[in-house]
Amino acid sequence: MTGQGVARADGFNLTRRMKGTPRLAALTADVPRRYRQNLDALLEACTAGGADALAEVLRDLRTICLKERRATLRKTAHHEVFAALATAAEKRLVAHLTTNVDGLTTTFAVRDFGAVWPAFRGRATRAEVVSALRDVIARGTGMVHVPLHGEAALMIARDDDGDETLQTLYGGPAGPGASSWVPSLEIFANAGIARVTEQLLPARLGYALLDGLLSETASPCEGLDVPARPAADLLVLGYGAEEDGTRDAYPLERRIDDLVRRGARDPRSRWSALVYRPGRFPQSTSWYEKRGFTVIGYDDGELSAVVRQACAGTLPGARCVPERANGTRVASHEAPGS
Fold first, then answer.
1. How far is 251 from 126, CA to CA, in rounded Å?
2. Is 157 helix (H, G, I), strand (E, B) or coil?
3. Of 195, 185, 105, 94, nearest to 140 (Cα)?
4. pTM to 2 decimals?
5. How far apart are CA 51 and CA 147, in angstroms?
6. Angstrom distance (rounded) from CA 10 to CA 73
7. Which terminus of the chain faces fewer neighbouring Cβ atoms within 10 Å, N or C?
8. pLDDT digits (tens, 9 = 90+) for 205-232
């Protein structure tokens, strides 16, 4: 699970760039201070200005992101992170889920390292996306990729029967039906984080897949058919869970809280969170630690090396041990294989 920390490791801070645009600044002047570092909250706030105003903000965002995409040769952190994930995927299933909306993780995951996300390569119906992801899951090796909250270049069309088609478009939609394409980020902003899994297809698929992989029982998961197996290890990197209490509605946080509250976490799974300078972000650090993650800090230039170590099993991970006699569960920090 990746957040904006991956982009920031390469010097790209989309939140800061968007806050510097006049249109977003004007529409978010009344957003409370504690939400002003949360790009999702800022985009949601822009919907109050109406459809035209939101469209202008999203055009600004798209322009920034597509320009940044031209500099992929300089994105060494992205390249090395996905190289590590691709190496791991040679021997096991790797599901890469991202809340990044800039599209850079999709470019590296799919274009450069062969992750499966059909919409990047052309038009793909919901059925085609589900089939492609399901094939990788059934094989048990390889990497799948889902941009959970949409992204700058991802468009979605819905026909009269409600069937959805997705496509990454770096130019504008063209040809018959061009007017039916809607930016995925428009759907995301209008839905808001609390309703994103109801309104946005990638969110429905990705978070359903997460549910299935964190469970040891078989799950249909929006048709993805995750078989019964030990629950997946969970590696979270560059994702600022629960900073300043602004993220109560986020799907990842709600799912983790639910598993912990119910004591439903598979005791064989290892949970790790890679956090940039943990001392600077105590809310995130504390949130992870209280829920049984091992928090592993990284500094400038260190992210890719830490990801390689985590994927290779040479860093400790938090493993949830079986219940004690009094019914409580605790997280133990143990070296892999111990």
1. 21
2. strand
3. 94
4. 0.89
5. 23
6. 11
7. C
8. 999 999 999 988 877 888 888 888 889 9
